[in-house]
Amino acid sequence: MSKNILIIDDEEDVRSIAQMGLEMAANWNVITASSGEEGLRLAETEQPEIILLDLMMPDWDGKETTKQLKNNQKTVNIPVILMTAKTQSVIALELTELNLAGVITKPFRPLQLSEQISQILSEIELNN
User: Between vectors from CA 34 to CA 27 and to CA 41, what angle results, nearest 5°?
Assistant: First the structure.
């Protein structure tokens, strides 16, 4: 089943690789944004099923972008998965603080990205 996903990352190569992997491996519809502000606007208008968000970005980082998404009535219920190169211990704290759906560590394998996202979504459904 095809999913609509929004990727927010300031690095064009990361967006391109993730988009290619999701489209090739799972035939998902991918929308991309290069900043948190652009991502918030696209999330409001496009209503993706999930958001894949980079932690380290200029201006609005992943934390600020998540806070903006969670404080917006149009985007509050969209699950957010954080992408980061940080260690697991730091990530666990951020998961709790930001009410994230999950975390995917960088570097990721593009053709396995859809499986990782699907697994996180399945865990969310089980917990609800």
Answer: 85
Report the CATH architecture of 4-127: 3-Layer(aba) Sandwich (3.40)
In the structure, what pLDDT confidence band is assigned to residue 123 with cuts at 50, 70 and 90? confident
How does DSSP assign 102-128, residue by residue?
A: EEEESS--GGGHHHHHHHHHHHHHHH-
Give the residue extent of every domain in the chain: 4-127
Nearest to 78 by CA among 37, 39, 49: 49
pLDDT, tens digit, for every residue of 80-89?
999 987 666 6
Tokens of 44: 């409001």
Segment holding 29, helix H or strand E? strand 29-33
Burial classification of residue 86, based on how many CB atoms lie within 10 Å of its CB (0-12 exposed, 13-18 middle, 19 or more buried): middle
Residue pair 48/5 in contact by the 8 Å Cβ criterion:
yes
Q: For strand 50-54 and strand 4-8, is the pairing parallel, antiparallel, or unpaired? A: parallel
Q: Which helix (H) or strand (E) holds 54?
A: strand 50-54
